[in-house]
Amino acid sequence: MNTTSVIHDIKPIILTTGLYDLLKDHLRTHKLSKYNEEKLTLELRAAQQVLMRDLPPNVVTVNKKVRIKLLSTGEEQVYNFVGTTNAKRKNNTTSILTPVGIATIGHSEGAELDWEMPDGITTIRIEEVSDL
């Protein structure tokens, strides 16, 4: 698959160095679809790495509550993103390494992005990011 044919506009994402390294390691496991792997690779190449204290408050990262909208259906979903070891269904928390976590991490409120889900490529808009 030609990356330029599926990825039309990569905007730099903002990540802490720890999350940047975590995503690089996740790429090495080859658990993503070809489309998502190519998209994440391009996002990481353009990523801005910052210290946690310099991360803008409206950027998706761990310990954030994120409300997204699936633009194809208008459905809204809310996720409480945490690190992989802290994700527990009973606490209503989701690992940042779930497909939707990887898709949105580093993006800020208002961002629209395409990500391949099990039923095809979906356009997601990040509606709100707040602290847990």
UniProtKB/TrEMBL annotation:
<protein>
    <submittedName>
        <fullName>GreA/GreB family elongation factor</fullName>
    </submittedName>
</protein>
<dbReference type="InterPro" id="IPR023459">
    <property type="entry name" value="Tscrpt_elong_fac_GreA/B_fam"/>
</dbReference>
<dbReference type="GO" id="GO:0003746">
    <property type="term" value="F:translation elongation factor activity"/>
</dbReference>
<dbReference type="Pfam" id="PF01272">
    <property type="entry name" value="GreA_GreB"/>
</dbReference>
<feature type="domain" description="Transcription elongation factor GreA/GreB C-terminal">
    <location>
        <begin position="57"/>
        <end position="130"/>
    </location>
</feature>
<dbReference type="InterPro" id="IPR036953">
    <property type="entry name" value="GreA/GreB_C_sf"/>
</dbReference>
<keyword id="KW-0648">Protein biosynthesis</keyword>
<keyword id="KW-0251">Elongation factor</keyword>
<dbReference type="InterPro" id="IPR001437">
    <property type="entry name" value="Tscrpt_elong_fac_GreA/B_C"/>
</dbReference>
